[in-house]
Design a protein that fits this description.
Length: 140
């Protein structure tokens, strides 16, 4: 199960689910929309890649979403996001290739770390800057 930094207060309150009786049964249960999860994944690491966005052409569902990512090396990937994690399903945007048997990664960080040395460097530098800032805060 992947954790994200999605604050429920940031989500629009007028989703329309309240009025729709078909969704009332789901209140209080842990039904997760993978599109929301995918948006949170994109927001977490967008700063460290050239381009990243949730696919608008491949179908999103409660249990699957697709994310297009272009690394700083200009390599393009289509990622599948499920409860099992993230994996590469194609080497271009908005594609899936059933012949690809790529491993699942528990986090987007480990997946991008394996695909992109430039991501690793940018992410590492951002982490160092954050640690330096925290160190300064604690000293003041």
């Amino acid at each position: 199960r992947m954790e994200t930094d999605c604050n429920p207060m940031e989500l629009p309150s007028n989703t329309g689910f309240e009025e729709d009786s078909d969704y009332r049964d789901f209140e209080g249960t842990d039904v997760k929309d993978m599109r929301l999860e995918a948006e949170a994944v994109v927001n977490d690491v967008l700063f460290a890649v050239s381009n990243m966005f949730v696919s608008k052409t491949l179908p999103c569902a409660e249990d699957v979403a697709y994310i297009n990512v272009e690394t700083r090396e200009r390599n393009r990937y289509c990622l599948e996001l499920t409860e099992a994690g993230l994996r590469v399903v194609a080497y271009d945007f908005d594609q899936t290739d059933d012949r690809l048997q790529t491993p699942y990664h528990e986090t987007v960080y480990s997946l991008l770390d394996s695909l992109s040395p430039a991501y690793r460097e940018v992410f590492g530098n951002a982490l160092l800057q954050r640690l330096e800032a925290l160190k300064k805060e604690s000293q003041s």
